[in-house]
Amino acid sequence: MQRLDRLKESPSQTAGPYVHIGCVPSFAGIEGVYPEDLGRAMITGDAKGERITLTGRVFDGTGTPLRDAMIEIWQADAAGLFNSPAETRGSADPAFAGWGRQPTDGETGIYAFETVKPGRVPFPDGRLQAPHITMWIVARGINLGLSTRVYFEDEAEANAADPILSRIEHKARVPTLMARRAGSVHTFDIHLQGENETIFFDV
Amino acid sequence: MHNNPPETGAFYPRDPDWHPQALTPGYKTSVLRAPQRAKISFDPTLGEIAGPAFGHGLLGPLDNDLILNFASPGESAIGERIIVHGRVQDERGRGVGGTLVEFWQANAGGRYRHKKDAYLAPLDPNFGGCGRTITDAAGYYSFRTIKPGPYPWPNGVNDWRPRHIHFSVFGTGFAQRLITQMYFEGDPLIDICPIVNTIRDQAAIGQLIAPMDMANTVPMDAMAYKFDITLRGRRSTMFENRREGN
């Protein structure tokens, strides 16, 4: 019989407490190596769509906010297109990167992204997904980066029809994926453990 | 790269037995930060299959030279000069070209340039500890640095990290995103490190240990270590993304 000859993915290791040195060096106090921290600005011009702030904290099992985490988000533009070579349906808004990176604050644990409300993106079977933002969280004590999705609580109709949300068996957990809106500010807290543990995805 | 259409196949599932589990009590910080409920699985959608791309225009001339990129003019970082090089590939063995690789590390004395590192070893005024590069079309990368020192850390009473360099790799799809650490061949601290030992499979640990590479050593200048990084593979795109009924 032939062999599949597949390699194994390099195993993950924690990003550690000093992830900022490599990824957001100015947060670590290192200036002058790069012009600015990568991913700080997602909007690079006159981006189309509704401007929003996505903010929140990451809580451990005692309810203490993580003050050493780093969060990345990745999303479609207002028209539902990704700014990526793998986007074959059209060209995304050139003034919107779609990807951003922020540390949680060293004192308060608050993260914040200035971004645009994403458009809807089709599921592989053609159904439209509800507007959402993919989020990836790394920190000291997290051995493999955690993936989740940020949905918007004021998109009730789209959320009800979303192929991912609708396959979640325990409906009581779905609210852990909903950002709460106050004006243009959408708050999304992540709970690593406990009664309100955020849904994390294996994708 | 530019001559080939982008790949849009979904990724192979991750092997949870190869990666460390979330709850690894030997690494105490994981205990309160480990999710306790099962992850929910789904086949990747476009948001996971696509990912951000960074052009070579991002890079400054010293971004991949940690010996010089924080040093005063005419000076250089203290420590054993080394070259780290290798290939970013996927599980099919294909090189991942044009992808951003970021790295960070402690200085030769085991001290990080970070406001939260209070280890008594001194900072090196000529060493910042961060660098980045973008792989060439075949997936190869290289950078120059100094060999980081081991250091003690608060976990057990007397735990020490082996010498290591942190790596952040993007790949072409966001679901390939990976952060890991590179260790050095022969370091006796590897076997007793609680963070290394979050990985249960010795072969998986071995995948993170870079061998000394005499062939790529620069005589009278720098030692070399080779570190290949493997990202998740993709399915063939031929039968992907069909709408229902097709």
Q: Indicate the low-confidence ranges of chain A by residue numbers.
A: none
Based on the structure given, which CATH architecture of the domain at 62-227 in chain B is correct? Answer: Sandwich
CATH class designation of chain A: Mainly Beta
Secondary-structure element string of chain B: EHEEEEEEEEHEEE
The averaged pLDDT of chain A comes out at 97
SS summary, helix count of chain B: 2
Q: Tell me, what's the shape of chain B?
A: globular
Which homologous superfamily in CATH is the superfamily of chain A? Aromatic compound dioxygenase
Low-pLDDT regions of chain B: none
Question: Biggest sheet of chain A, open or closed, and with what strands and sense?
Answer: 8 strands, mixed
What topology, given as strand order, has the largest sheet of chain A?
4-3-6-7-8-9-1-5
* Fraction of residues in β-strands of chain B: 15-25%
Spell the H/E element sequence of chain A.
Answer: HHEEEEEEEHEEEE
* Number of helices in the DSSP assignment of chain A: 3
Short description:
Chain B: InterPro entries: Intradiol_dOase_C, Intradiol_dOase_core, Intradiol_RC_Dioxygenase, PCDO_beta_N, Protocat_dOase_b. Chain A is mainly beta and 203 residues long.
Description:
Chain A is mainly β and 203 residues long. Chain A has a single domain (19-191), classed as Aromatic compound dioxygenase (Protocatechuate 3,4-Dioxygenase, subunit A), CATH 2.60.130.10. Helix content of chain A is 7%, strand content 25%. Chain A has an 8-stranded mixed beta sheet. In chain A, strands 2-10 form a two-stranded parallel ribbon. In chain A, a hairpin with a 7-residue loop joins strand 6 and strand 7. The longest helix of chain A is centred in the first third of the chain and has 5 residues, at 19-23. The relative contact order of chain A is 0.19. The model of chain A has no long low-confidence stretch (mean pLDDT 97). Chain B is globular. Chain B is mainly beta. Chain B has a domain at 62-227: Sandwich (Protocatechuate 3,4-Dioxygenase, subunit A). In chain B, strand 6 and strand 7 (159-161) form a beta hairpin. Strand 11 of chain A pairs parallel with strand 1 of chain B, so a sheet runs across the interface. Chain B: Its EC number is 1.13.11.3. Chain B: Residues 84-112 form the Intradiol ring-cleavage dioxygenases domain. Chain B: Belongs to the intradiol ring-cleavage dioxygenase family. Chain B: One of its GO terms (molecular function) is protocatechuate 3,4-dioxygenase activity. Chain B: Pfam families: Dioxygenase_C, PCDO_beta_N.
